[in-house]
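Quick one:
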Amino acid sequence: MIPQERTLWQAAWLLTEPGRRAFTAYRPLFLGIQGTAAALLAVYFMSPDVRRACDVLVGWKDAGGTPFVVVSCILSGGVIPELLKWRLRPPGLPRPTLPELAHQMAIFGICGLMVNEFYKLQGLWFGPAHGWGILLLKIFIDQFIYSLFLPNPLVIVWFLWREKGFDLAATMRAVRPGLIRERLMPLWVTGLVFWVPLLLVLYSLPVGLQFVAFLLANCAWGILMVFIARRQVDAPGVRDSRLAK
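Output:
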């Protein structure tokens, strides 16, 4: 392997390290959630009863509007994973405080609204088409434009706000391209590995069902995202700098 290739592999290995640590810490829980989601999606295509039940959920979402979207995303990304982690958290990993939990859950509600609107836009742009070209284009827009420039930077700034003691002025002063890039890339690369296979299935579903399927995946993504974001905030250098103030 030539030096340049070795450097690229080393960079890729370093970028995926936070995701690999998260998976190692919560492997049984993560695989259990993902396995359940995959099984439910598989049964959806085989069982008319399951499809009718999913149609009911879609009806609830349509009737509930924004409150349903916010509450369901907080439950799927914040509450359910934290309840499971409460029982299955590996030794040595600290439990979040109540303010930290409220802070974490709020970002899932905000991102849920963004995802819902993004899926609506995708539906307007591409309609019900499910050809391979459309499918790959949706995934490219999702991961290389939407996720990279909207929700992931928001998550980074959201946890930076906590790091700065919820001081908005201090947070804004700390937002600089180098810091955002340093914290963004591990989260984004982990998201590529996590979401691309799931999006192949999700974007093959009817437009109205895509958000419901997203909620299933969101349970597992909540574990990865919070683990990576909290490790960035609680890294030794960050803790030491806070203690020095």
